[in-house]
Structures are given as structure tokens and as C-alpha cells.
UniProtKB/TrEMBL annotation:
Protein name (record): Uncharacterized protein
Organism this protein belongs to: Aphanomyces astaci (Crayfish plague agent)
Biological classification of the source: Eukaryota, Sar, Stramenopiles, Oomycota, Saprolegniomycetes
Length: 117
């Protein structure tokens, strides 16, 4: 029996994405989808005192600045701006940001009581 298991994500778009995955897999596998801490429908990191979040700011930062012939310089500026954003998030939401990692996302998946066994 096919089990479609969507944890922490309940928007229609996500359900249709899961249906597509099930179709591609031939209906023979369980599907697990979730938003790790700080991503998607989970709580984003707060990066200013007025609740401007990393999720709000990321679209402004996410385009890699490859402009020839100074790509190395552009990448340096890009790295500096990302580090500044991370420092702001740590300053305003440090108690939360320290738990945004792959290891904590893995722990969340392992400890979810709704997880199929």
C-alpha cells in the first residue's frame, strides 16, 4: 500500500508535488516531505528588530554575481554580504539560529511521532 506522508507541509502545491514524485516512483515507495527548521513553512530566522527575516532577505542575496572578468571580486563581495546577513540573524535570533543545521533537521525527522515505521 502506498503511504503518502507529508509532515509539516500542507499546501496544495506541496501535495501535487508529492503526487508527481509518487507517479515517477511508480507508487512503490513512501514519500516523506517536510520543511527543515528555518525553511519554507517553518519559522524563519529573524534578522532585524522589526522581524525582517532571512527568508525575506534571501531573494535579494541569492543570485550569484558572476560578472566577467571580475568574477573573483564579485564572489568575494557576495560572500561578505552573506556573512553580514548571517551575523545579523545571529544577533537578533541567535538562540534559534544555532539550531538551524543538517544535524538538527535529521534529529527532527527521526523524532517525528507521525513518521511511518
Amino acid at each position: 500500500m502506498l503511504l503518502q506522508y507529508i509532515s509539516m507541509m500542507s499546501m496544495d502545491a506541496d501535495k501535487s508535488a508529492a503526487s508527481s514524485v509518487v507517479w515517477y516512483l511508480g507508487g512503490q515507495h513512501d514519500v516523506l516531505g517536510f520543511d527543515p527548521r528555518g525553511v519554507g513553512m517553518s519559522r524563519p530566522a529573524r534578522c532585524t528588530k522589526n522581524n525582517y527575516t532571512a527568508t525575506t532577505e534571501w531573494p535579494n542575496q541569492s543570485h550569484l554575481p558572476f560578472d566577467s572578468p571580475t568574477a573573483e571580486t564579485s564572489l568575494g563581495r557576495f560572500g561578505v554580504s552573506l556573512k553580514a546577513m548571517v551575523r545579523r540573524c545571529e544577533m537578533y535570533d541567535g538562540d534559534y539560529v544555532k539550531y538551524l543545521s543538517t544535524s538538527f533537521a535529521t534529529r527532527d525527522m527521526d523524532s517525528d511521532p507521525r513518521r511511518p515505521t
